[in-house]
């Protein structure tokens, strides 16, 4: 075999291998995309229309590793079945900072494969408190999160007292780092640590106007969404502060707020009062129950058959009669 013939055969082999690799890659991408499209045999039964992914309302963000380990294999299988109803995965308690880099990247890439964003959760509180607000350390944290593949950076201060202008500055820093800033605001001092009712009552609460004013400031600073802390409102309280929920939903754009609602009674309340397209944060174990409620196919005595949306046309709806 002469040199020219060998070079020709090598080019053919490389071209063939490239085509197979591209085909395989496309197949995997199509498979992941198709996993988020309803292919149920029961599509002839009516259910609520929900906006398709990627959507800007009706978002479901789920908790990732913290109370329970959420592995790459578990997450992949979970999202293969239910990814159509999940928009984001959020770490809690800074758990991601304990993971080996390659395992963390694998978990984030698995979420991305299913068209799902990944949020840091509110670990920036630890960064702020341990560095005394050192901008260089904060910038390094933002850059590291971006390089690891995170999409959303939550900016919470349940344990800290931060001037509003500094908080807004963090929003701008986060956006400049290429991450979506998501400030978390609430009415409860000391929120975020699973404190007892007595401890939270002792710490005291803020006026709802404080929450709303800061949320508006952060949106003006470039926040892509506001997370509403549940402690002091529906979590670890003797009586729910539904007045706070009403004040928030009346004052802020619906598509710009997300409520923590990791309890079936709480997310049912939000769906009842805001409709099936409320933006909610729940535990990963609650995906199915929330999806059934949003779609209006099941519920409790107070919600069964009562959650309704208006369809977007026969071609986009989920009620299709099969041909005979």
UniProtKB/TrEMBL annotation:
Pfam families listed in its UniProt record: ComA
Transmembrane segments annotated in the record for this chain: none
InterPro entries tied to this protein: Aldolase_TIM (IPR013785), ComA_synth (IPR003830), ComA_synth_sf (IPR036112)
The name this protein goes by in its record: Coma-domain-containing protein
Entry superkingdom: Eukaryota
Family affiliation: Belongs to the phosphosulfolactate synthase family.
Source organism per UniProt: Lentinula lateritia
